[in-house]
Amino acid sequence: MTSSADAALTRLSRDGQTETEDRMLGAHAPARPGAPMRGNLGLARFFAVPGQIVSVLVLVMPLLVALYMSFTDWTPTRGSLLDASFVGFENYSELLIYDSRFLEAVTRTVLISVVCLAFEFTLGLGLAVLFLREFRGKAILFSAFLTPMMILPVVVGYTFWMLFQSNGPINQVIALVAGEGAMPEWFRSAPLAIATVIVTEVWHWTPLFFLILLSGLNAVPENPVRAAVILGASPRQVFWRVVLPMLKPVIIVAFVIRGMEVIKLFDEVFMLTRGGPGTATETISLYIYKLAFNDFQLAYGAAAAFLVLIGTLVIINFMLLPVRDQLLEARR
Amino acid sequence: MSTPKLELVSLHKEFADGSVAAVDGIDLTVAAGETVALLGSSGCGKSTTLNMIVGLEEPTSGDIRIDGRSVIGVPPGRRNVGLVFQDYAVFTSMSVRQNLAFGLAVRGIGRGEITRAVGEVAELLGMSDRLDARAKDLGGSELQRVAIGRTLVTKPDILLLDEPLSNLEAAARLAMRKELRRLQKEAGLTIIYVTHDQVEALSLADRIAVMSAGKIRQVERASAICEWPGHIFVASFMGSPPMNLVRGALRHDGTGLRFVSDGFSLALPEHAAIGANDAAGPVILGIRPEAIRLAPASATTLAARVRLVEPRGPDAVVTLDCARQPLKAVVPAHGRPEEGAEVNIAVDPMTLVLFSGRTDLRLPLRGKEAA
């Protein structure tokens, strides 16, 4: 007999032995090595306590401190947070009733978000549908299309800031096509400044929609699509009536992920316009940043942050409503 | 004779990624109102054949004719062929009503006409009270009904079913089998369906086409295919247990032809005659398990030892060792022997089947079949 066959036999017999030993252990001992220590669950929990304490401190404490802070008039120029006077909902009522700059920032952020998401979704879906087919250079284009979202937001911001300069590449192209007189001053007019923000944001994050929708499209079961084709549906009908409804949960999740992010819009705007001209492109994040670090109104800023959190929670849960049951449904 | 509903003419399909032919020259003619089963194990090309008939795949060569007209190049939605998928592929985001209406709605048919047609089909399938249910809340046999109904609404010339019963549990399977039989009669449908389950094939089909390795080995009336398999594959596939197959040769003795194999010898029916060419080559003898009887010892019986007895209720499958040749026999449960017993078996020569060892085809025993 060859040595390898010998080794295999030895292994076989040893395995067999282990199995019987395990069975014997199973009959007599409460736990097998490698299996969860059911008998010692209490001890296991005990060992997990320090880790849980740390996570509570790290995760929950800052939130609680900020929440407390939002009910005070504290600023870092006036001593400790503990000495600050408690003002109840004064910060909140001020923000919601009198602070038109805050309310405008909220409206502006929501509008920019809606426009960005609409463009990103449409472009991402279009690209994803294109990628369902075979064409030359697909692999390279795939990587290329994903690259923007891997670039740091700050870098994207200043790149587009340079592109949109009055003598920058974009204006050079415009001058070539339409003459020098047609060159806009991108950062001097409110609508154009908002447009630069939207263009930058769409360029930066369309890839995420593209990626999520492409994986969603690839996961769409083939047979309902074939069935629709056999029943006489045109490609367009197949897409709108069969594929898109099946894609609905994926689409909604994509909107939720991007929605949460775009509401926090900061870096690109900061690099592009600093919120200007005036406050024409000031987003919520930018306004809160200015409150905290220009005006040292940290308590007021915290209140604004909590209002945004509550608003986001409501919006996101509202968006998830149509697929909530489906996502929470246990696997059968 | 009228034009056949469907003709497959030397149908051939090779996939781009390999030189292996998934479907290797199939000829099949199906008459209007007929039900034909494509029977074979997985990978034998039966699903590819369905896909080509419906138009999801184009054949590499050959022709598909419906009502005498070639449908090569005609898109799937225009062939008027319906396909019901094994996993039903019901549109889960829609209601039952929307599913049933889909085929008409995409063709731009008017609302009144759709309502009428959907109502009719729902009636036929006994789903009138479930029209507003969401498809994702349906159970297996209901899903199948929706899948069939969705196709019937478009009034297809030919209905293709891919493994129609295999995803159903046993009770639903029996009910659905009956239902399909009824539909077949009431709607006068021409049905072709694919299955790997011979009981399903035998119970639903008028004719069965047994497939292996991309070829149709035999097309035969369901009632005859177990009796007279035309190809060695069919013999080894049909029946439970399938036919015993013994390799050997033919010898002439004083009285007539004998089959001889390594200590095993059996007389063929009197007056049996086989072409000299075939008789000289290797042959394979087929002995049906049902044709082997336990009998008192005589000149025509063979001695055998019982290796294994597997009771199946009314009968038992007995594995015998007959001159070192393993044979399976089906005997009545009450007369079954003990394991290890020495028995004598008799085989009715008229039930024997002979295959050529060279072509794997059945050799007609001329003398017998003329009689």
Commentary on this structure:
The complex is a heterodimer of chains A (332) and B (371). Chain A is mainly α and 332 residues long. Chain A has a domain at 99-296: MetI-like (MetI-like fold, Orthogonal Bundle), CATH 1.10.3720. Chain A is 72% helix and 0% strand. The two termini of chain A are 51 Å apart. Chain B has 371 residues and is α+β, with helices and mostly antiparallel strands. Chain B folds into 2 domains: 6-221, 3-Layer(aba) Sandwich (Rossmann fold); 232-363, OB fold (Dihydrolipoamide Acetyltransferase, E2P). Chain B has helices at residues 46-54, 96-105, 111-125, 140-152, 170-186, 198-204, 222-225, 232-237, 276-280, 366-370, and strands at 6-14, 21-30, 35-39, 61-66, 69-70, 81-84, 158-162, 190-195, 207-212, 215-221, 244-252, 257-261, 264-267, 283-287, 292-294, 302-311, 315-322, 325-332, 342-347, 353-356. In chain B, the strands form 4 sheets. Chain B has a 6-stranded mixed sheet with strand order 6-7-8-3-9-10, with helices on both faces. Chain B has a 5-stranded antiparallel sheet with strand order 13-12-11-14-20. In chain B, helix 2 packs across helix 3 (111-125) and helix 2 (96-105) runs parallel beside helix 4. The two termini of chain B are 29 Å apart. The A-B interface holds A 221, 223-224, 226-234, 237, 241-242, 245-246, 248 and B 54-56, 75-78, 81-83, 85, 87, 89-94, 102-103, 106-107, 147, 150-151, 154.
